[in-house]
Amino acid sequence: MPVLSAPIASGRLIVLIRVLEATGSAMTNRNRDIAAAWKYHTATNHTERSVHNNSHHMDFDNQPRPFKIYRDLEAVTLPSGLEPSGTLALDCLGSAPSHEHRAPTLLELAGLMHHAAGITKVREFPGGKMYFRAAACTGALYHIELYLVCGDMPGLSAGVYHFGPQDFALRRLREGDYRGLLVEAAGGEPSVAQAPAVLVLTSVFWRNAWKYQARAYRHSYWDSGTVLANLLSTGRGYKLPIKVVASFVDEPVNRLLDLDDRKEVALQLVPVGETPEQTIAPAPPVSSLGLEVEPYSRREVEYAAIAEAHAASSLDLPQEARELWGKPPSLVVYEPQGRLFPLSCPPAEELPQETIEDVILRRGSSRRFRRSPITFQQLSIMLDRAAHPVPADFLGDADATLNRLYLIANDVEDLPSGNYVYRRDLGALEQLEEGDFRDQAGRLDLGQELSADASVNVYSLTDLNAVLERYGNRGYRMAQMEASITAGRLYLAAYAQRLGATGLTFFDDEVTEFFSPHAEGKSVMFLLAVGRSGRRG
Ligand SMILES: Cc1cc2nc3c(=O)[nH]c(=O)nc-3n(C[C@H](O)[C@H](O)[C@H](O)COP(=O)(O)O)c2cc1C
User: Fold this and answer.
1) Ligand 1 centroid vs 144 CA: distance in angstroms?
2) How far is the CA of 529 from the centre of ligand 1 (A)?
3) Between the CA of residue 439 and those of 252, 374, 379, what are the distances in Å?
4) What residue segments make up the domains of the chain, in order of their start?
5) What percentage of the chain has pLDDT greater than the value 90?
6) What is the pLDDT, as a whole number, of residue 128?
7) Ligand 1 atom with least separation from CA of 505
8) pLDDT score, position 28
9) DSSP characters for 330-386?
């Protein structure tokens, strides 16, 4: 959206916006210069050499605090005593969102925020306390923040709020109904236009870049993806309409949240609830607030590669956002070349009966795996629940995903050890190669033991060129977040079955080579290892 500094009579302003919209596609469109996404991706690929030559070390005296603390804003305490949805985790993970026409209650919003980004465990360490959150996060650095933009609702007046997990409270940044700004920024996206409340996820880059440097930009989408997986499944538990909106004009949303976009940016909008009869008024003017925040560290480092990748995938006009709805590139469908292993899911009454909230609260990342098998049925349930399309603006109604799942099965009962690709179109695993690939798996995750000891490793790979051709650089964000939402669901589907799981990093090109020729030309977006937690016997 253009920034207009001089006051303009409202009639002329509307004409000017229409002219800009009409010419939007013809204007130089930075999102369409897809060399930028490739540049970032290639520059941050892990290779043997890049890892070996990297002299970066973590400066623990300068470790960023994992919370955003506003100096002068009063806390609006959220209601405790969250009501359990009573919905089974595996039901939430396996089904489409609700289309009930209703608004969320404040208690439900509190429940959504708690199960997405709340503190779920506290561990004491010699150096202090560690606050673990509901969703997995690279390095437990928790750089994802949540904001709420809502109209008037029982118990909460219209406003823009920040969610503080440290005291389970909201802080009001702006008073009044600003949803109109989000509707406009998202190009009138119907779920946003009908939502009583919209959650906005952001990333504070430095809090992750402190350890991971420029790769923190990928991590913004990985770590928001696991938060989104929890949000979508908890929302499903509450039977609330809920969706991921990835296409919006960036600048006004960042301005609404009073963000310095070199340091913190909006990643996704998540409309919650659906009240079609509502009309959202245009938002009041959005001035800069200059709110004071406690410094995260004594000093911060900004990574140019992050700023460039984000700027290059930013949208300037609502029309650009609209152009990115639906029509995902189709995955190539072909006759299977290898042996097929159809998924084997038990009837609903035989599924584990734990609720979504209990599974989220119990989830943690496995630190070790015992070398012991999981069953093919357990793997089938995980794939069946995790790999269906995400409710997202960029997928629309298409029964499609941007990523394909590749597997190294080390130890799965009734499945020969080997490499597989998941054929969602056939509901089956297609074998690529039979054999024992533990050693290779243990190398691909940068030599950590976890992949070698896991029962199965699941890699998300995308045809990045096709994705970027369709969505521009914004497609990079979409492919990363979709892969991570799938991984977040896999985490939950594993824990719902009393298994363990962990996200892992990887040598990018080596993974592609490993699964080639099938995976030739594809890029790796995520790796999740699943198995039985515990020490090797
Ligand atoms: C995208 C992603 C990548 C991760 N990569 C690794 C990894 O390479 N090695 C590792 O030991 N843990 C990895 N983890 C696990 C995190 O360290 C873990 O989520 C974090 O410490 C928080 O703990 P929790 O998941 O038990 O709540 C990863 C997690 C995510 C979400």
Assistant:
1) 14
2) 11
3) 49, 19, 21
4) 59-303, 340-533
5) 89
6) 87
7) 8
8) 64
9) PPPP----S-EEE--PPPGGGS---BHHHHHHH--B-S-EES--EEHHHHHHHHHHH
Query: What is the Å distance from ligand 1's center to 132 Cα?
Result: 11
Fill in the DSSP letter of residue 413.
E
Measured by CA distance, the residue closest to atom 22 of ligand 1 is: 140
Given a cut of 70, is residue 1 above it in pLDDT? Answer: no
Q: Is the bond into 517 cis (omega within 30 degrees of 0)?
A: yes
In this structure, the residue with its CA closest to atom 5 of ligand 1 is 504
Has residue 506 got a pLDDT over 70?
yes
Using the mean position of ligand 1's atoms as its centre, give its distance from the Cα of residue 503 in Å: 5
Complex ipTM tops 0.90: yes
The fold of the 59-303 domain, in CATH, is NADH Oxidase (3.40.109)
* Helix (H) or strand (E) run with residue 418 in it: strand 418-423
Q: Which two tokens stand for residue 165?
A: 């997990």
pLDDT at 9 over 50: no
531: Cβ–Cβ under 8 A, 6 or more apart, which residues?
Answer: 366, 369, 370, 372, 374, 411, 453, 454, 455, 456, 499, 500, 501
* pLDDT score of 16 more than 80: no
Find out if CATH 3.30.930.10 is the number for domain 340-533. Answer: no
Substitution candidate for ligand 1 out of 138, 228, 490 with most atoms within 8 A of CB: 138
- Give φ, ψ of 30 to 5 degrees: -65, -30
Contact in structure between 341 and 376 (CB atoms under 8 Å): yes
For residue 299, count CB atoms less than 10 angstroms from its CB and return exposed for 0-12, middle for 13-18, buried for 19 or more.
exposed
The residue type found at 381 is I
Q: Helix or strand or coil: residue 477?
A: helix
Probe target for ligand 1 pocket from 362, 365, 367, 459, with the most ligand atoms within 8 Å of CB: 365
For atom 19 of ligand 1, the residue with the nearest CA is 136
